[in-house]
Amino acid sequence: MRQEFAAWVLRQIDIDENWLSNVLWTDDAHFSLNGEFNVQNSRIWATENLRIFTEMPLYQPRVFWIVIDFYLLKKMDQRTCIKFCVKNGIKCADAFRMLTVAYGEATLDRSNVYRWYTMFSEGREDVNDEERAGRPSTSRTDEKINVVEKMILANLRITVREVAENLNISIG
């Protein structure tokens, strides 16, 4: 994943040599919407104590980073490619070879390519996974959601583990 990102960055620099100057590099996981920043990550060096105090609200609106599952995106891309091959009469073995060239190590395994090829051949149109039955959730009820909301409002520093223990539910 890091190598792919590095290769992508290098391609962007080849396209626009000033591309790096348009990127905000930071170690913060979130940014406040009113321009404040996390002072724990900054240091001001001075010969004397400046004694500057700024009053600000305890909780500020923030923008959080969203992690995109690139593997999931590649999986969906490959399924779309398989669907394209089916619609154009390209054999499954050839489709698998083309996916291997295009996606390298991130290619779906042979059995999944053949399975999706068969499903698209039989008329399937959707590239997304179908809902799975699984075990029904007993922890997500309106009653428990209300209890969790009350617990959080009563104690803003409560941990997920404490909530789970209090409600006798598992985490994850």
UniProtKB/TrEMBL annotation:
Transmembrane segments: none annotated. InterPro entries: Mos1_HTH, Transposase-MT_Hybrid. It comes from the Eukaryota. Pfam families: HTH_48. Residues 75-123 form the Mos1 transposase HTH domain. This is Mos1 transposase HTH domain-containing protein. It comes from Cordylochernes scorpioides.
